[in-house]
Amino acid sequence: MTESKSSSENEALHELAPAYEAIEYESMLAAKIEDESARISIIGQGYVGLPLAAAFSQAGFKVIGLDVDQERVGTLNQGISQTPDVSSEDLQRYRNDGSYQASADFSVLAESDVIIICVPTPLRKSKDPDISYVLATVDNIVKHLRAGQLVILESTTYPGTTQELLLPRFEDEGCRAGVDLFLAFSPERIDPGNRQFLVRQIPKVTGGITPACTRLAAQLYGKVVDRVFEVSSPKVAELSKLYENVFRSVNIALANEFSLMCRELGVNSREVIDAAASKPFGFMPFYPGPGIGGHCIPIDPAYLAWKMKFSNYTTRFIPLAEEINQSMPGHVIDLVNRALNDRKRCLNGASILALGVAYKRGVGDIRESPALQIISELKAQGADVSYSDPHVPNLLLDDEHLASVTVSDDLVRSVDCVLILTDHPEFNYRSIVACANLIVDTRGATWGLPRSAGQVVDL
Ligand SMILES: NC(=O)c1ccc[n+]([C@@H]2O[C@H](COP(=O)([O-])OP(=O)(O)OC[C@H]3O[C@@H](n4cnc5c(N)ncnc54)[C@H](O)[C@@H]3O)[C@@H](O)[C@H]2O)c1
Fold it and tell me: Please, which pLDDT band fits residue 14 given cuts at 50, 70 and 90?
């Protein structure tokens, strides 16, 4: 039997309808996350997206790794991993048990319960944020939208992107955040090649457009990480990531400038920093280096500086840190030049063995690597430069194909200068110091090893 309702009752019910709908979609998705039957699509299968996909596969979810790069999709489906944080054996296992599949067919999004965006967010030549990859991805999601989906942006971006850029695109399609669409930002914090902190050990910050969006995103990540840190909005989550990377950029710049001061004072900066680091509180050591590289530290601070311009606010720490960090490759070239000069050699015609071209230890990532700029400039000044990097077998530099050479005692003895640019653990620093005529060590890799007077120039 149906009861007829008064018009005021009907109005009240109408007002309550979105609330019921919201609870219905939220509880349906929450149940699927709880029993791991939620289907997850992760868009972008690079350094960030693949380890995340592997973590969800391992937790028992069915994951599709979407990427526009067909070649990468093919390789992943053969069980070959390109990132240091997922072994090919693990990937093959997930392929075989059906928990992971790579695809370039975005129509699968229609069947997904959860969509996570891990695409690049680089800078344009003008140093403005290039958000085009994120926008192209959102266009793809919108085409296959279905009520009740959870969409999470992980790509590092400027504050306000999720609320001001993504949300309106979904609202244009009639979606209501927290009712029939759940939207959140959760910054990726992975440190490629770091064996100590993998996906599970790195807490996940999560901020949704509404409390329901935050709840669902936090529940999802709770399946693969030990700790989820919920914040009040996507903007807080976006800013937390930028603050982490500005913090690193500024502290690296401080260490770099400090090393310049120590040189003037005739002291080794590493010895001073190590001494300061013996303080058990209130100090965190950062060390000087040949410059900053990778997809995060040289780029992300510019996202915040760009956004602040709209508030007529000119950031000061960010450009100062950038200026100091970007001056380091030139400083390294200067050190090589002077060290050769001290031996009555000139850079033009000198043979230099560069150790490491990746931007950091233990990985093969050469994006924004200062080593490239240094090698390129040394070659431009007439030096005969070869390189060795166990993680980068080949290199295209200034239209020239270079191949990594194998380090041997004879090779080290034969060159005028060994230039350590990346402190990969694979290099045998003890035997390098035993054989080399001259070492310029930009990473402190030979610090503490027995060396002859004037043999090693530290940064
Ligand atoms: N690499 C890191 O250490 C790191 C750490 C934290 C955060 N991040 C951030 O994570 C994001 C991704 O970085 P990454 O290092 O994984 O990049 P990456 O270049 O390794 O991988 C990005 C992948 O996205 C794919 N892609 C590009 N456009 C696409 C599109 N429209 N649809 C689907 N796939 C697309 C590319 O083919 C590539 O495979 C960036 O915002 C970055 O700043 C990176």
Answer: low
187 pLDDT exceeds 90?
Answer: yes
Which residue in 175, 213, 262, 296 is the catalytic one?
296
Residues with Cβ within 8 Å of 29's Cβ and at least 6 positions away in sequence, in order, are: 38, 113, 114, 148, 150, 182, 216
Measure the CA–CA gap between 122 and 141, rounded to whole angstroms. Answer: 21
Coil, strand or helix: which one is 217? helix
Does ligand 1 lie within 6 Å of residue 222's CB atom?
Answer: no
- Residue 343: pLDDT over 70: yes
CA of 451 to the centre of ligand 1 (A): 42
pLDDT in tens, 35-72: 999 999 999 999 999 999 999 999 999 999 999 999 99
> What is the separation of C-alpha 119 from the centre of its chain, rounded to a whole number of angstroms?
11
Matching residue, tokens 């400039």 = 377
Identify the three-state secondary structure at position 391. coil
How far is residue 450 from each of residues 297, 429, 434, measured CA to CA in Å?
34, 11, 8
For residues 203-220, give the mean pLDDT: 98
Distance 48 CA to ligand 1 centre (A): 6
Domains parsed from the chain with CATH numbers: 7-232 (3.40.50.720), 253-458 (3.40.50.720)
Q: What is the DSSP letter of 129?
A: B
Average pLDDT across the chain, whole number? 95
115 touches ligand 1 (CB under 6 Å)? no
Ligand 1 binding pocket includes 118 (Cβ within 6 Å): yes
Handedness of CA 414, 337, 418, 266 (dihedral sign): positive
Amino acid at 355: L
DSSP strand pairing (204-208 vs 394-397): unpaired
The edge-to-edge listing of strands for the beta sheet with 204-208 is: 100-103, 62-66, 39-43, 114-117, 149-153, 181-185, 204-208, 228-230
